[in-house]
Amino acid sequence: MNEVATIGRIHHVNVVQLVGYCVEGLKRALVYDFMPNGSLDRYIYSKEGSITLSYKKMYEIAVGVAQGIEYLHQGREMQILHFDIKPHNILLDENFIPKISDFGLAKLYPANNSIVSSVVARGTMGYIAPEFFGMLLMEMARRRKNLNAFVDHSSQIYYPSWVHDQYNDGKDLEIGDATAEEKKLIKKMIITALWCIQMKPSDRPSMKSHTDARRRC
């Protein structure tokens, strides 16, 4: 099982811990630590507003996810590429510490390769590298799906493109009732997201440079 082989070598606070597995005939099961607060998507896409997290907590979760990805990428000989970093695959423990999960599509790749061909990339469309972390970050910052056909203005259907144009034109985003401090955190997340999803691979940051920048903040 690909996931057992991959995650069996991982030990990090921001990666879900594999407790065990079972193979019985054609049935296979993986056992992980229980995550009482579920997955991140329920807090991002909550329509009722009854399940919410503060922007400060969202920012802390984003930093934790980045640290987990950095750990996966820092292997001496082989790095682990997840290929499906999305809200559903970010689990939250009792203290809302994020844990990257679901390594079924992950691949081992030589550590000295910083660019991966899209031929080997698999995963949920919109969350495959290079978009994976940047696209996740964008949804966390604005608490909405990046692609939404039901928005009021057609220009906002693909949110990352609209945000990019807003910043290019020197406009600030309208963020409702967020405090001044929360607006700063949201802006940090969006600018980092735009940095991560640039078209040229050489223009995108490594996860190490991203986490180093967050530690200095």
From TrEMBL:
One of its GO terms (molecular function) is protein serine kinase activity. It holds the Pfam family Pkinase. It comes from the Eukaryota. Keywords: ATP-binding, Glycoprotein, Hydrolase, Kinase, Membrane, Nucleotide-binding, Serine/threonine-protein kinase, Signal, Transferase, Transmembrane, Transmembrane helix. It catalyses: L-seryl-[protein] + ATP = O-phospho-L-seryl-[protein] + ADP + H(+); L-threonyl-[protein] + ATP = O-phospho-L-threonyl-[protein] + ADP + H(+). It is found in: Membrane. It comes from Rosa chinensis (China rose). GO terms for cellular component: membrane. InterPro entries: Kinase-like_dom_sf (IPR011009), LRK10/LRL21-25-like (IPR045874), Prot_kinase_dom (IPR000719), Ser/Thr_kinase_AS (IPR008271). Its EC number is 2.7.11.1. It is a single-pass type I membrane protein. Residues 1-217 form the Protein kinase domain. This is non-specific serine/threonine protein kinase.
